[in-house]
Amino acid sequence: MAAKKLGSRLETEIERCRSEGQWDRIPDLAKQLSAKPIANDDLAELLLGEAKLQQYLKENPIKLGASPHGTKPRLVEVRKHLVAALDRGNLKPEYMQEANLLLAKLNYIEGEYRDALSIYSRVALDDLQLVGIPVYRLSMIAEAYATKGLCLEKVSSLSPANSRHKDEEQEIITCYEKSGDIALLYLQEVEKVKIALSTGMQNRSPKSGPASQEQELGFFLETGLQRAHVIYFKNGNLTRGIGRFREILRAVETRTTQNLRMTIARQLAEILLRGMCEQSYWNPLEDPPHHSPLDDPLRQTSNTKDYALSRRPKVYSGENIFCPQENTEEALLLLLISESMANRDAVLSRIPEHNNDRIISLQSASIVYDLLTIALGRRGQYEMLSECLERAMKFVFEEFHLWYQFALSLMAAGKSARAVRVLKECIRLKPDDPTIPLLAVKLCIGTLHWLEEGERFAKLVIDMGEKASEFRAKGYLAIGLVYSLRATDASLRGVQEEYQRKALGAFQRAQSLSPTDHLAAFYLALQLAVSRQIPEALGYVRQALQLQGDDVHSLHLLALLLSAQKHYHDALNIIEMALGEYPENFILLFTKVKLESICRGPDEALLTCKHMLQIWKSCYNLTNPSDSGRGSSLLDRTVADRRQLNTMTLPDFSDPETGSVHATSIAASRVEQALSEVASSLQSSAPKQGPLHPWMTLAQIWLHAAEVYIGIGKPSEATACTQEAANLFPMSHNVLFMKGQIAELRGNVDEAKRWYEEALSISPTHVKTMQRLGLILHQLGRYSLAEKILRDAVQVNSTAHDVWNCLGEVLQAQGNDDAATECFLTALELEATSPILPFTVIPRTL
Questions:
Q1: Which of 180, 285, 748, 755 has the fewest CB atoms within 10 Å around its CB?
Q2: CB of 619 within 8 A of CB of 584?
Q3: In sequence order, which residues have a C-beta less than 8 Å from that of residue 572 and are 6 or more positions away?
Q4: More confident of the two residues 395 and 416
């Protein structure tokens, strides 16, 4: 009885060592076994042969496509043990099968492929049981199928290509698929045993047991899991290949397959993004189509499985499991899972010993992030992309590619300030690349208005000299724009003129370096126009149009220059021609309203305002929060609508009249936005949803309509239009200014004065408000204060002829005739070159 117990305990220990791959312990256990009855001698031979074969493979790993190892002395020993175990015939049937499987495996290693195949046909591989067998035998059967597939491939490759049959190819794939399925089942069973053992040890002792060794797949199991889909894709059968990927990914995960799953998830995501369209997509829970446009039409086969197994690996199932419904959605899900795994497995250590591991983990993560960029970029989900890339920053020290991707994603997400900081790091990593500082300049002279920073970045490009090659001209263009904006910001005329001179010099240098660049000629023309050198500006804008005939800003500038020469009808014709190419450009439409008021009368101008409202509604597909009767929800926008929104040319957010983008204007717009939000909440009006720019555009449309009504003396209609704008931005200085004009039209001077003072409290540099308030103070006899306000207005905008004229009237009323005369002459001179709208309404961006 005791001997029987000892025997069963020994067999259990042998089985455990075989399952866990502890081959170094097998010889000792085999020695103990051989002391038993004679049948055990044959089993001991089998165990010794297996142990020596596995040890050999561990020390001399096989690589796919490599030549066979050939007969080695150690392999000769393995064969002796296995042949001895088989020849005596004392083994139980299941052990006979195992010995044959090991011998076939040995034949493959030695390059005897046909001998291996004859053993597999003798063993009847498909008849081997998968139910009620030890765990290690699942591994042996999985390896056997993989080895059979490899042997069939080798034999097939030796025969002429035209003699190969489609059935042979399918048999090879079936071998690999069966091998992969059984391998997954084996790994799940091993994991289950490990969990049971660790739980039992924790229950028996408060101290945790030794950490179990990580299970290794090995060459044959890995081949079984990875080879089938490779052949499918090679043969042009994407449908079956994708199906195989999904089968592996749906299997319940084990620690051993985590790296494999990450690789497969990434590969499947790439195929879904690059090789599949929405029309050919089927979700993972559906049967694949029998015939798919994805597959090679010359090699069409059935896309259904033609084999069955008595046991299959467990798959994730349940009612609440998410199932993607289109290719980008599935790709994104796979990539987010891969990104999570790549982040978790990232090697952070910088010590030399870990250098190779760190490079491999970084390359793996980099591929995932590149694919995420494609997937999220298609959906316009730049916010999410920037968050994903931010998680990678912990392990991408000194890695330019991912830093640059992070900067670009921040730019696309509208996080300009952070993007500039990340671009600084990119410049440090790649100091000789001129495109990076140019991107930083673009952000700095845009909504950030960091002109000093922008100047530093532009100088980096210029200082590169010849190394910047064709981008050197862009560097001068960038610094010219910085100087031009600084001239607009400057309050002292001397400083303004100095920056204007620098801007002109930079634009001239840019044009000399790149005479075929229309932007250099255009910005040179714009700067000359701002400096009121109208004839010279006309020459350069025509040159810009010769280089790029459909450039919207060049056409707009030409129209404004013609209006400065009082050729209003010609200017209107140019605007209408430009609108033929860009019908949804609001800046052009605002200019058209001004020109139509002069050329065709207010009725035409009001029709254009109505047309703008229709364009706004169709482009943005938003619901006006002031239209409480029509609802205030944000309507769903399609991808096309979002793309249209992104490419739409929007007017400056500061002042529709002056177009100035002073630092003070930016501050004022933020103040009025905050005040407007507070006022809206107090009035319980529905909040504005979506981007802010569309609502600002809508408010400007209403204000332009109100201005037309004021021009024809209709205060009631002007009030209604102004109220529409007020519903959107109650504390906007433009709205308050318009209310002041309506009060003036009605003869309420005190009320007008109050509105103007409120507007200036929000935007102290709004020139139009300063001019109107100065006039009212002049009417009230408060000449000193009127003079002070008008002189401040001249400091802000020295080209505003209306302000000079008002200042002359105030000075004349005070008896200062000489100064008044000088002001009137200045006003006349400026009015002669004054455009219908300031030249600065044209955006100055890189």
A1: 285
A2: yes
A3: 559, 592, 595, 596, 599, 600
A4: 416
Report the pLDDT value the prediction gives residue 211, as an integer from 0 to 100.
Answer: 40
* Separation CA 759–CA 767 (nearest Å): 11
**Stretch among 102-106, 116-120, 469-473, 662-666 having the lowest mean pLDDT:** 662-666
In the chain, what are the domain boundaries? 1-123, 766-846
133 dihedral zone (left: phi>0; alpha: psi -120 to 50; beta): beta
The residue assigned the tokens 């100055």 is 844
Beta-bridge partners for 251: 315
Report the mean per-residue pLDDT for the chain. Answer: 82
624 pLDDT tier (thresholds 50, 70, 90): low
Over residues 349-359, the pLDDT tens digits come to 777 877 787 78
Tokens found for residue 552 = 């919207």
Q: Which long-range contacts (CB under 8 A, 24 or more apart) does 279-283 make?
A: 281/326, 281/327, 281/330, 283/323, 283/324, 283/325, 283/330
The neighbour count for residue 84, using CB atoms within 10 Å, is: 17
User: Residue 621 has what pLDDT?
Assistant: 67
Residue 4 CA to residue 681 CA, distance in Å, equals: 86
Neighbours of 331 (CB within 10 A): 26
User: According to the 3-state scheme, what is the secondary structure of 35-93?
Assistant: CCCCHHHHHHHHHHHHHHHHHHHHHCCCCCCCCCCCCCHHHHHHHHHHHHHHHCCCCCH
* pLDDT tens readout for residues 138-183: 999 999 999 999 999 888 877 765 555 677 888 899 999 999 999 9
Q: Which two tokens stand for residue 400?
A: 């330019």
Q: Tokens 């739409």 — which residue?
A: 648
Task: Pick the closest to residue 472 from 422, 510, 446 (CA basis).
Answer: 510
Cβ count within 10 A of residue 179: 27
Alpha-carbon distance of 30 to 144, in angstroms, equals 24
Handedness of CA 711, 715, 720, 724 (dihedral sign): positive
Backbone Cα Rg of the chain: 40
Question: Hunting for tokens 């309506």 — which residue is that?
Answer: 742
Q: Which residues pair with 699 in a beta bridge?
A: none
Among all chains, which residue has been given the structure tokens 């109220």? 723
Mapping DSSP to helix (H, G, I), strand (E, B) and coil, where does residue 315 land?
A: strand
The CATH architecture annotation of domain 766-846 reads: Alpha Horseshoe (1.25)
Average pLDDT over residues 275-281: 79
Task: Name residue, tokens 């035409």.
Answer: 604
Q: Which two tokens stand for residue 501?
A: 């001179």
**Phi and psi angles of residue 446, each rounded to the nearest 5 degrees, phi first:** -90, -130
The torsion defined by the Cα of 218, 219, 223 and 224, in degrees rounded to 10, comes to -50
In sequence order, what are the residues at sequence separation of 6 or more whose Cβ sits closer than 8 angstroms to the Cβ of residue 600? 572
Q: How far apart are the C-alpha atoms of 219 and 645, rounded to whole Å? A: 53
Q: Which range has highest mean pLDDT (2-16, 336-350, 756-770)?
A: 756-770
Question: DSSP characters for 786-824?
Answer: HHHHHHHHHHH-TT-HHHHHHHHHHHHHTT-HHHHHHHH
Q: Is the dihedral of CA 505, 506, 509, 510 positive or negative?
A: negative
- d(CA 799, CA 632) in angstroms, rounded, equals 42
Structure tokens of 823? 């002001």
Compute the distance between CA of residue 106 and CA of residue 68 in angstroms, rounded to an integer. Answer: 11
Spatial distance between the Cα atoms of 597 and 574, rounded to a whole number of angstroms: 16
pLDDT above 90 coverage of the chain, percent: 26
CA distances from 400 to 3, 22, 212, 423, 425 (A): 69, 45, 39, 10, 9
The answer to whether 326 and 281 have CB atoms below 8 angstroms apart is: yes
CA pair distance 626, 619, nearest whole angstrom: 18
How far apart, in whole angstroms, are the C-alpha atoms of residue 488 and residue 520? 19
Closest by Cα among 578, 587, 505, 508 to 540: 508
Rounded to two decimals, what is the model's pTM?
Answer: 0.78
pLDDT band at 191 (very low <50, low <70, confident <90, very high): confident
pLDDT at 423 over 90: yes
